[in-house]
Amino acid sequence: YQVFGILSLCICVLVFFLYQPALRAAFVSDDFYLWKVVRDLSLQETYRLFLPANLGGISIVKYTGHQAPLSAWFIWFNTVPLGMNPYSGHLISLLLHFTAIAAVAKLTHLLTKEKKITLLAALIFGTFPYISQSVHFMSAILFPLGTIFYLMTLATQILYIQQRKPIWLIFHFISFYYS
């Protein structure tokens, strides 16, 4: 387990080294479009991001192509309480990327039970160049969020099949909704 932990830490350091330039990036036009949608909401009003538009919800479909309530909430969190700070927005995105890497590792380990394959999957996912968009652009935060919840959907389905505990089925449907 020590070698596994050390290699996992090395993957995290490598990913941070690759993506740390994103922490200095500024906002782009898509970020400002989403900011315009959420900037006037108070904390009490953010529940409207989770409702359909016909029930008084605030839709971001026009800007993202689909309803993404968690993405909109993260945009709100970064722009309203944190004062529209690009550094904190990119740091949140990077932390979500680390969470997605952990989800890839967990799902791979559930499927294979092999530590080497788990580390390789985490390394490939963590350093794959396409993923950089989700760390560099605040408005692309829906990609790591979608990845995390999609992988949680798969993992909870596997756990439900293995253990037959209803709680895994409940988590499966919740994570599917947010993926």
**Percent in helix:** 55-70%
Residue runs with pLDDT of under 50 for 5 or more positions: none
Shape category: flat
Q: What is the radius of gyration computed over CA atoms, rounded to a whole number of angstroms?
A: 18 Å
Instruction: State mean pLDDT (0 to 100 scale).
Output: 83
Write down how many β-strands occur, each being a DSSP E stretch of 2 or more residues. Answer: 0
Biggest sheet layout: none
In DSSP terms, counting alpha (H) and pi (I) runs of 4 or more, how many helices?
A: 9
Describe the structure.
The chain has 179 residues and is mainly alpha-helical. 69% of the residues lie in helices and 0% in strands. The chain is built from 9 helices and no strands. The longest helix has 27 residues, at 86-112. It is flat. It starts with a helix and ends with a helix. The model has no long low-confidence stretch (mean pLDDT 83).
What's the short version?
It contains 9 helices and no strands.
Which terms summarize this structure?
179 residues; mainly alpha; 9 helices
Helices and strands in order, then pairings?
Blueprint: H1 2-19, H2 29-38, H3 61-64, H4 69-79, H5 86-112, H6 115-127, H7 132-136, H8 142-163, H9 166-178
Helix pairs in contact: 1-6, 2-4, 5-6, 5-8, 8-9
